[in-house]
Amino acid sequence: MSDATAAAFAAVMFAALYAGHQVGDHVVQSSAVAAAKSVPHPDALAAGVPPWTGWGACLRHVAGYAATQAAALALVCVVVPLEIVSMATALVVSASTHAVIDRRWIVRRLIELKKCHGWVEAPYVLDQSLHTGAMLIAVVLSVAVSDVTGLVMVSAGAGAVVGAALTVERRFASAHTRAMDALPR
Questions:
Q1: pLDDT of 124-144, one tens digit each?
Q2: What is the DSSP string of the chain?
Q3: N or C: which end of the chain has fewer CB within 10 A?
Q4: CA–CA separation, 39 vs 34, rounded Å?
């Protein structure tokens, strides 16, 4: 594939993923799922709520989100012959990163690091910025991956990202619980 063709496919894939993202994240997602999908607040963890709480809601959201992005890609296929392996690669990366970002602990950590607690829009803007960056990575990988072996490798990497996120969530919860236990009663 020539550089110009690869760039054109990347642009079309990004546009489709972005349109699917907007509809899947803002129109398809219910308020109940949006409220339930994140890592429990530290106060809830201290009260004994398991750190895995919210993953069911998050996965329901990501299923609808990925289906919406898949529909957007399928619509584009009416006029642009996208490769199934490329589309699957983009969807795997987009869905897995979306799940991790939507657990919201990364956004909370960024707010702490940036010291922007007073910026009311920070949670939403940072969340959407991370999703957009992840979609760019998804598109670059989708153009680079041309066979099933590459898709399997990307899928394994996406699984590793989710697994690492689960480990980090568990460590945050354990550290918070230890800190709460150390407080005088």
A1: 999 999 999 999 999 999 999
A2: --HHHHHHHHHHHHHHHHHHHHHIIIIIS-HHHHHHSSPPPHHHHHTT--TTTTHHHHHHHHHHHHHHHHHHHHHHTTTS---HHHHHHHHHHHHHHHHHHHT-HHHHHHHHHHT-TT-TTHHHHHHHHHHHHHHHHHHHHHHH--SHHHHHHHHHHHHHHHHHHHHHHHHHHHHHHHHHHHS--
A3: C
A4: 12
Answer yes or no: are the C-beta atoms of 155 and 95 closer than 8 Å: no
Nearest to 38 by CA among 21, 25, 26, 55: 55
Q: Which amino acid is at 143?
A: V
